[in-house]
Design brief:
42% helix; five-stranded parallel β-sheet; seven-stranded mixed β-sheet
């Protein structure tokens, strides 16, 4: 290294500690993921300077390094500062793989024991949270290539397996298998490996209250008919 410095043939990257080089590599991958998945992104400079999701992830990468080094107060200070500026709250204890894309981002919450695989996408208002009933591992685990739609809540120490999708505003409380789509409150798997699991008409979903009222009306009609028959029989006897 001394000979390289003396000759002027040393790159800046060679002078950086391994942890910093690793951090820079992760950030570059995150930025590339945004450029690949967001058709509105016009260039790298725009993504780096103007995308709040990228800023939140960058802050997370720094705070997570601090957290792993047991600098807990400093880690939380960085994450809370990022929350103030971006509206995205990522606990520094969360484990996040490469290529996470947080689109728009406002209102996203990622809990301490949450785990996110590679190349996942989260939209605004997503919560990867707890139910308040669990200890230790309290938050969800997302596999690789998972998409969670706007406003969706994934709660508890459950798994959303690889290549799965969670629809907007869904509330997921149970595991979602790989290559599946989950919708609703509580969420149910409606597609698996590209095939419908069950018929689901999102426009004409049956109304359970209306169904019960219809049953009551039929019962009343049957009883009325039976009562009329009894009256008729009684009159014939007289």
């Amino acid at each position: 290294m001394y000979d390289k410095l003396k000759s002027g043939k040393v790159f800046i990257s060679e002078l950086l500690p391994e942890s910093l080089k690793s951090l820079i590599k992760e950030i570059k991958y995150d930025v590339a993921a945004v450029r690949e998945r967001d058709p509105a992104a016009k260039g790298t400079v725009e993504v780096v300077l103007l995308y709040s999701g990228v800023h939140a992830i960058l802050a997370y990468r720094v705070s997570h390094k601090l957290y792993l080094g047991k600098h807990y107060f400093s880690a939380r200070a960085v994450s809370q500062l990022a929350r103030f500026f971006t509206g995205i709250e990522i606990h520094p204890g969360a484990t996040i793989g490469k290529g996470l894309f947080i689109d728009h981002g406002m209102g996203v919450v990622i809990g301490e024991t949450a785990e996110i695989g590679d190349n996942c996408t989260l939209y605004q208002g997503v919560t990867l949270g707890g139910t308040g009933k669990d200890v230790g591992k309290r938050h969800p685990t997302l596999g690789n290539n998972v998409m969670v739609g706007a406003g969706a809540k994934v709660l508890g120490p459950i798994n959303i397996r690889d290549n799965s999708k969670v629809a907007a505003n869904a509330v997921v409380l149970k595991e979602v298998p790989e290559n599946s789509t989950a919708v609703g409150i509580p969420a149910k798997v409606v597609r698996r490996h590209g095939m419908p699991v069950q018929d689901l008409d999102q426009v004409n979903i049956p109304d359970p209250v209306a169904q019960q009222l219809s049953k009551l009306e039929k019962k009343i009609a049957d009883l009325t008919k039976e009562l009329e028959q009894l009256k008729s029989q009684q009159q014939n006897k007289e």
